[in-house]
Amino acid sequence: QVQLVESGGGLVQPGGSLRLSCAAPGIIFNAYNTAWYRQAPGKQRELVARITNDGKPNYADSVKGRFTISRDNAKNTVYLQMSALRPVDTAIYYCNADKVVLSAPGGQNYWGQGTQITVSS
Known about the structure:
single chain; elongated
């Protein structure tokens, strides 16, 4: 059973920075688009940023210019560099991998267990 493994969460002051990492062992990483979602208390899960299997990023309007998504296919890892953090960014952040090369082995979609980001002074 493949499990994406997130790391890098924690408590940060407003205006601060954090970098999240998500390792995806056991899958053909370059067959998958990868993304970060977040879910704040009482709200639905929302897409934060996605990067395609060939490296094209896109972002939610709320994080454009502050967050950067990247990936290292050699390490089966996707990153989210977050800066200028705001209290509204407080949420559980989830990593996702969605297969786009359908001929590749492995499941269609995987999630991580989530990592808490709290932005507070």
